[in-house]
Amino acid sequence: MNLCNLLSNNELKKKILTENNFRFNISFYKYFKIKNPHLFRNLVYIIFNKYNVLGRVYISKEGINSQISIPKKVYNKVIYLIFKLDNNLYNVHINKSIDNDRLSFFKLIVKVRPKILNDGINEDLDFSKNKGIYLDVSKVNDLIFNNNFIFVDIRNNYEYEIGHFINAIQIKSINFRNQISKLIKKVTPFKEKKIVLYCTGGIRCEKASSLLKYNNFKNVYQIKGGIISYIRYIKKKRLSNYFIGKNFVFDNRMSENVSYSTISKCHQCGSISCNYINCANNKCHILFIQCFSCRLLFNKFCSINCMKLCL
After folding, report:
1. What pLDDT, in 10s, does the model give residues 83-96?
2. Cβ distance 60 to 37 under 8 Å?
3. Are residues 223 and 285 in the same domain?
4. The 95-96 sheet, strands edge to edge
5. What's the pTM?
6. Using one digit for the tens of pLDDT, what is the confidence trace for 56-111?
7. In degrees rounded to 5, what are phi and psi of residue 135?
8. How many domains does the chain have?
C-alpha cells in the first residue's frame, strides 16, 4: 500500500502559504536498477514527508526523477538522506534552481511509473552507460559559435518559445515522446558535426543521446546539468549569457528569470510577454502566453469563446 497525504489540495496549499520557511527548489535524476520500485517509493515518501519536502517524484525500475522544494533549515539533512537512499545516489548531481523566491509546489507526490520519462523508445538501451559525453558548463560559451558544433534543444515547443540557446536547433514537438520520434531525421544532416544536446536539467538528454549513439552517431555530447547548471555557472563567473529569454519549469512558477531578455509574445495581442497561463475554462485548460493587459481583458481565458462558455 502506498503511503500518502490525506489532506485536500486546498488544505495543503493553505498550509504552505502560511508557513514562513524559505525553500530551495532542486531537481535530480539517476538511471539505475530498482528491484522493488513500490518499496523504494514508500521509503522516499516517508523521508520527504518527515522533513516537509514538497514536489514531484517519479520512480520506476529504471531509476528516479525528482523535482522538489526543501525548507532551508533542513536542506543539508535532506540532501544527505538522498545520498543515503541507495549507493547509486551517492553524490548524485543536484540542480539547485535559479529562482527560489516563489513557491514551486504545494504538496508532495511520489509515484511509481513504468518509466521515469515517457519516451516511446522500444529499443533496449542502457541509459546509464551508452550515452553522450558530458560537456562541462564551463565549455559551453566557447562552443556556441563554433561551426564544428551544433546545439540541439531537447525540449517541447512551449519551453523553446520563451527561451533557448542562441542558434540552437529546435525539434518541434508537443512532448518528449513526440520529439524522440523526430530526433534522428532532424539531426541526420549534421551527423558529421559534434552534436550538443541540452534540456532543462539533463534527464531528457540521457535518453536522446543514447538513441543517437544507438543509431551510430559518433560525436554526441550533453550539457552536464542542463540549462540550470549553465545559468548558475555563468552568473557565478559573471560571464556572457548565451541563453536568451526565460527558462520554463514544470511547477507553479512556470518560468525562471535567467536573462534580461524576453523573446516570446502574447498569443492574443502579439505584445512582448513570457507569462504562461492555463485557460480558465477547465474544459479547455490550454497552456498559452498572455500579457497583463490581455489577462485583464480576457479574464484569464484564451479566447472570447472560452470566456462565453463559462459566463
Report:
1. 999 999 999 999 99
2. yes
3. no
4. 95-96, 23-31, 63-71, 54-60, 108-112
5. 0.87
6. 999 999 999 999 999 999 999 999 999 999 999 999 999 998 877 667 888 999 99
7. -105, 115
8. 3
142 and 225: one domain? yes
252 located within any domain = no
- Residue 224: inside a domain, yes or no? yes
Catalytic residue (one of 199, 266, 291, 306): 199
Residue 150 phi, psi (nearest 5) = -125, 140
DSSP-derived secondary structure for 220-264: EEEETTHHHHHHHHHHHHT----EEE-EE-SSTT-EE--SS----
CATH number of the domain at 146, please.
Answer: 3.40.250.10
Number of H helices, E strands in the chain: 10, 16
Range of the domain at 276: 265-309
Residue 297: strand, helix, or coil: helix
User: Domain of 82: which CATH number?
Assistant: 3.30.70.100
294 in active site: no
